[in-house]
Structure prediction request, 338 residues.
Amino acid sequence: MPRITRPLILLAIALLVAIPAIAASAASKSVKLTLVAYSTPKTSYDQIIPAFEATPAGSGVTFGASYGASGTQAAAIIAGLKADVVNLSLQPDMTSLVNAGIVSGKWNSKSHVNRGMVTNSIVVFAVRPDNPKKIRTWDDLLKKGVDVITPNPFTSGGARWNVMAAYGAWREAGLTHKKAVAKLTTLFQHVSVQDTSARNALQTFLSGKGDVLLSYENEAYAAKKLGQPLEYHSPKRTILIENPVAVTTTSANPVQAKAFLDYLFTPKAQALFADNGYRPVLPGVFKKYASVFPTKKLAIFKITLPILGGWAKVQPQFFDPKTGIMAKIEAKVGGVTG
Prediction:
């Protein structure tokens, strides 16, 4: 047998001491991800983030998070706000990040689950208990004495969904473009408060202002679940809200950020979204919550409806701050466009 020298013995002892220390150091090393999201999914992420951290992929990962109006959040990221993962209210806000080189143009390619749309919802009417004004249709919002609350469409993605839900519903009912815009103008003449975000609009309504709040279904659902004094109704015609998520190209920890994004599409995370009122994008999970999210007797249309044309068309048509339809309506009602 070869003779084991004293230096070799000392080297072996040193390695036995060093290897556990190195392993412990690696295990204790943490990676911090920053999630930047629109205002409403905060409650969901307060549950989803710890669930992810408890998985092997999330071991050693911690989070910082920022929530606010979708358009404001997108602008802040472009201005320098750090973000590893972004979850915004609607596609145009994500497109602005693509144009700025912060998100890959392939974020919603066919290779991504549900083409990058992590949650669904619909626009509903949140009303006072027992619905004293009997508000159930879009035309009911135009009745004399009805006070409407909705966020400002030039800061809030939720507000833009509200606008397109109303306009699309009237077009689907057979109205011409001109007549639908006229009704949209009348609707905003009934709006007394335009907050910057959907979450702030909900708080305004819960404070006692308004007869009806145009709301994400998930926001109304969560508020009712918490015992807040409201009920909500789905108009017969309403729009399917699709919320995008992506990893940024500027992330310092792209592997962990991608792992978190992938986790958001697991049955566990989708169920947590559903528990907070979001419609799951995974068919198997949605089926388990079918009794919570009505589909029968509802004509739910998408932004890609031919009479709408998708966000590429309606974003400049309705929401250009100088020439858009909503800019002109806001000028008539004394609202703001920026």
Notes: The chain is about 40% helix and 15% strand.
